Amino acid sequence: MFEALMLACFGSSWPASIYKSYTQKNVSGKSALFLWLVFLGYIFGTLNKVINGIDWVMLFYIANGAMVFTDLLLYYRYREKKRGSVSS
Questions:
Q1: Does some domain include residue 4?
Q2: Predicted TM-score (pTM) of this structure
Q3: Which of 24, 46, 48, 87 could join 61 via S-S bond, C-beta 3.0 to 4.6 A?
Q4: So what's the pLDDT on residue 83?
């Protein structure tokens, strides 16, 4: 139960992050490395559930992983604008 609550808390921030990236078409302040590490963490959590016994908590890993992956796609879509906004 605590694992599910932890994942629900972590997962509650991703919709806001996705919405901001999508509506502003700007990913400044985001790190691809950070997003990839979080995404890999959710993949490993899902694999743990597959190896050690699937339960309903696995749905949180999958949902959170899908949201982080969506944020990654938006990052790569709008990163050119991030690069272009840097001025000297």
A1: no
A2: 0.82
A3: 46
A4: 58
Q: What is the pLDDT of residue 88?
A: 41
Provide the domain limits for residue 58.
25-83
Residue 13 belongs to some domain of the structure: no
Q: Is residue 61 part of a domain?
A: yes
Q: How far apart are CA 63 and CA 59, in angstroms?
A: 6
Token pair listed for 82? 């991030």
| Contact indicator for 58, 42 with CB cutoff of 8 Å | no
- Alpha-carbon span 29 to 35, nearest angstrom: 12
In a domain, 67, yes or no: yes
Q: How many domains does the chain have?
A: 1
Residue 42 has pLDDT above 70, yes or no: yes
Rg of the chain on CA atoms, in Å? 15
User: How far from the centroid of its chain's Cα atoms is residue 60's Cα?
Assistant: 12
Calpha distance 75→70 (Å, rounded): 9
Distance CA 26, CA 20 (A): 8
